[in-house]
Amino acid sequence: MTEPSILFLRACLALLAMPIYLLSFLGIWEPFCKKIFFPFFLEKLSAVHERKVKKQKQELFHNLPNFKSPSGELKLLEIGTGCGPNFQFYPPGCRVTCTDINPNFQQGLARSMNKNQHVQYERFLVAAGEDLHQVPSGSVDAVVCTLVLCSVQDVNGTLREVLRVLRPGGVFYFLEHVAADRSSWRYFWQQVCYPTWKLVFAGCCLTREIWKNLEQANFSELSLQHTSVALPWTPIEPHIIGYAVK
Question: What is the set of domains in the chain, with CATH numbers?
Answer without folding.
Answer: 32-245 (3.40.50.150)
